[in-house]
Amino acid sequence: MSWFRKKVYPPFWKSYTAYLKEKQNANFENIRFVIFDTETTGLDIKKDRILSIGTITVIDKTIKVSDSLESYLTQDLFNTETVKIHGILKQGTIHKVTEEEGIVQFLAHIKNAVLVAHHAAFDVAMINQALKRLNLPKLKNKVLDTGHLFVKSKLDTSKKHFSLDELSLRFNIPQHDRHTASGDAFITAILFVKLLCVLKKKNTVLSLTYLHRSNDRIGLI
Q: How far apart are CA 164 and CA 180, in angstroms?
């Protein structure tokens, strides 16, 4: 009977999950954090689609520009209203890949890294929806949210949600290439490093458990 059969996943998913079986580095300074961002056709997780994915790596509070990824995806769904935000045209001269290839590239790049994003729940949900369309399970990496980390710092207790623009201004981070996936990933990487320094002063030993722990849930995760 078919429902007794073990589900067979493609090789790229098997490679991805094989990395996740490896133990995370116990030394916090050696943990590979992949900061990522997605540009999308809109904010409806089920209906909208990913236009581009940008990543950059941080290890030991150092941004590794050479360890990055930038992918543009073909647009089966096109929203003219969002073009003025991200500037990505349906055609244009930018090389684009299929959604599947974009996901393959992303998984191959992140491996077992700890993912970091600002308001991470949305970006993770968009990736998970793309995985669902490929009949694959959800992302399995640990995820940190810079919005959550800022709240954790208690530098400002006036509210629980701060935009990337607000925190960029607060930490004097130039908004170069804002609203591009790679640009926003780089801005978020700088923010992440600055927040680690702030939290280090509050807690002498940084750990994933400490960074992830929260009494309140921020966003969807």
A: 13
